[in-house]
Amino acid sequence: MPYFFHVLSSCQLRPALKRIVPRTQLRESKRQEREQLHERLQNLKPALLRSLLSRVLDLTLLETLQTGQLERLRFRLNFLTRDLAPLLLSDEDSDSAPAGPIGPFGLQGPWRLFGFRGDQVLTRWSNHELVANEVLEAMSKRNSEDNAEDLDIEWSARETEIYGGDRCRLVRNMKQLTHLEDDHEGVLLAVVYGAVCAVGSLPHPVSLWALDEKEAEAKAQAMCKAIRQVIPTRAQYLLQPSDVTNNKGGLIPALLAVIFMLNSTLPCSWKHEVLHSASFAIQSAVAQEVYKEPRKKTKGQSGQELSFTPMDLPVVPDAQQRKRELQKRIQMWLIEPDDSFNFDAPTMADPVVKSIFQQIEAMAGPWAVEHPQDFALLLKEDEAAPTLLALPAHELLLRWVNFHLKAFRRDPDAGLLNLNELDLALLVELLTKLAPDVMNLHEEEQTALRMSHNPTAAEAASLSLVTKVATRCTGYEILTEEVLNDEQTDMMASFLAELMASGRAQLPVRKSSEIGQHMETLASIVLEAANTQNTQLVSGLCSYLRDHQQSLTTPGDGYDVLLCSTM
């Protein structure tokens, strides 16, 4: 009998042992692979690798955004939920609109705006923002009434006093603009910044902190600092203090157009209660204000003086709070009755569409003005793609400079032997090709360079042109007259490295390259999805959400499940 149990156990254990041995070998093989991968990552500089992978993902997502025409859809959805009636004049009511179907705004009047030029619409929008002081004066009068405590007053007496000082005086002195170039003190930029920070509500006086500067130069610098926070492109450093004071060359209207398109401050249409459509993070205006004096006593206050700090104002919610708020909105949206016979295109009021756009723009936003690039063009014939990760920084920069010099001069033998050969003339040549948009902002300097008839005048003109253009290409003044006069090639190389990293590399993607083939595959997939009918998209999305309502409302992973399923 013991022998029988021994044989039985052997028969049962032998197959199990056979299964265990391969699994043990498999685990050992995976462990070795992980160790080898870890060693390779250490040798390939993990920080550089992560940065490169992140850049590739960003550019890929941007290509998807453009190929599927999602950016155009985003603008369309943004303005379909806005009320354009405030841009009309008093005699342009709905009765004077041309005959035709009523538009998505529920009014005929705003359709008159579609016949206007872009600069006319921007001028009317700017004037609409400038008349906010009338509302603020009404609030000031309400604060002075005896029954002010019983009224729903958003601002305190201290805040009204602050705005009623120099800030309000500057805004009141602004007349209605005939042209956008009429603003020479940057007041319009400050008002627009305040409207963006208001997140769809009335502007708060704290947001106009840039108007506190007395000197024109300091005020212009403060205005640039403020407006750069609400420009979601890599071109934010194009704006310089001289543009605010001179306001010429068309740069201010271009920046206002970007803000108007991506973050319209117009009120919501009566048919839509949309969330704030800003797709980029701006610093809280509260952080820019420091109150040095206590709040003055108002009617009804006790003898104790109340202190006022910026923390009394609403602050921007953190990520967890936004997540909880979004989950609540999703739950409310799910339980609303659904009209199965009326399918509309998704709007920014839908939490799902809103979250998708937020995720896309959060990743693609930094590269909104760029195109995909193929750094494989910097490789030699006998080198593989991973070689780029192991190249020293100076060697990579040298290859980038030589690539552009060969392309500009159409000479395969053109190029530098090392970065010590950099000079002023070479910088002028590179900036002319790599930053033509910035060069166009300095026509006077370019004309002076062309009219130079002797080497001394040409050098002075080149020096002025390079320093001014370089300031607009980076966030800090790395190239100065001293650097160029002393021919400090290390600082010149540092500037070119910053120029390369700022998105002006301009390394085109060839269709035959590996990244070009990936782009073609993504384009075919996105175009297939873009041709899908909106009714099918919305109906399928709604049914999916209702089927997975339990997982969405579960704390913790509901938000992740939603994003993963919809993306």
UniProtKB/TrEMBL annotation:
The regions listed as transmembrane in this protein's record are none
- Would the keyword Repeat turn up in this protein's UniProt record? yes
InterPro entries given in the database record: CH_dom_sf (IPR036872), Fimbrin/Plastin (IPR039959)
- Set out the biological process GO terms recorded for this chain's protein: actin filament bundle assembly; actin filament network formation
- Swiss-Prot/TrEMBL keywords: Actin-binding, Repeat
Q: Does the keyword Repeat apply?
A: yes
Cite a single GO MF annotation. Answer: actin filament binding
Q: Which GO terms describe its cellular component?
A: actin filament; actin filament bundle; cytoplasm
The residue range of the signal peptide is none
Q: What is this protein called?
A: Calponin-homology (CH) domain-containing protein
Q: Please name the source species.
A: Cladocopium goreaui
Q: What is the lineage of its organism?
A: Eukaryota, Sar, Alveolata, Dinophyceae, Suessiales
